[in-house]
Amino acid sequence: MSEPAFERVLLKLSGEALMGGLEYGTDLERVRAIATQIAAARARGVEVAVVVGAGNIYRGLQGAAAGMDRATADYMGMLATVLNALTLQDALEKEGAHTRVLSAIQVTEVAEPYIRRRAIRHLEKGRVVIFAAGTGNPFFTTDTAAALRALEIRADAILMAKHGVEGVYDADPSEVADAKFLPAITHREAIERGLRVMDSTALSLCMDNDLPIYVFNMADERNIERIISGERVGTIVSSTATE
Question: What is the rounded average pLDDT of the residues 91-120?
């Protein structure tokens, strides 16, 4: 195999990526497939950190959260990401990967508290680091957590896994039949055009710090390996977009 194109990456997984064909909840076979891909990247010498969302769990809580105080609902979402982080940790360890879960809110019985230098040290020792509980603050999404953690650990890129789409389009492909696929775009263009890459806070962080984002379809189990190998996959969002 060729030398990896990256030394350290942060993989952003939506909670929906863990659902498989379910309406909500966790498809353990899907989690296993994702863990296999992450473990393979780590085996090639790439340091991998993961931020996981909670959409798969929160879909089942939407009725309870309706009308709830926004901050309270956000804390519920943070706790849900801890559940997903532990699920992913278990699957990774069954693939032979060494892991650590670092949480932005204290759940000391199941995860270490997030400390930047500790996270970097775990990565240097070859462990897959899973960041849970977002930023630890309400009103911020796990997209923002992914951008923040990627910058803190000095990742080369964010790998933004999408559910059911190949990358970024000029319109929502589920609503617009002839939506055009965009192989490359700048952070600024994505913000100005309101494209669904990440939320605007996360995109602004990436833009201000020249951090590239690789948006790809998680359903194709070869995609992480292809990106790690330097192949063009999905959409690249960078400071200077090139075809």
Answer: 97
Q: Which residues of 31-42 are buried (b: 16+ CB within 10 A; e: fewer)?
A: beebbbbbbbbb
Place of tokens 């892991």: 99
- Give the helix ranges, DSSP H, for the chain: 28-43, 55-58, 62-65, 70-94, 116-124, 142-152, 187-192, 200-208, 223-228
Q: How far apart are CA 223 and CA 235, in angstroms?
A: 12
Q: What is the pLDDT of residues 204-243, one digit of tens each?
A: 999 999 999 999 999 898 999 999 999 999 999 998 865 4
pLDDT at 19 over 60: yes
| Domains annotated on the chain, with CATH | 8-238 (3.40.1160.10)
CA separation for the pair 96, 101 (Å, rounded): 16
d(CA 32, CA 17): 12
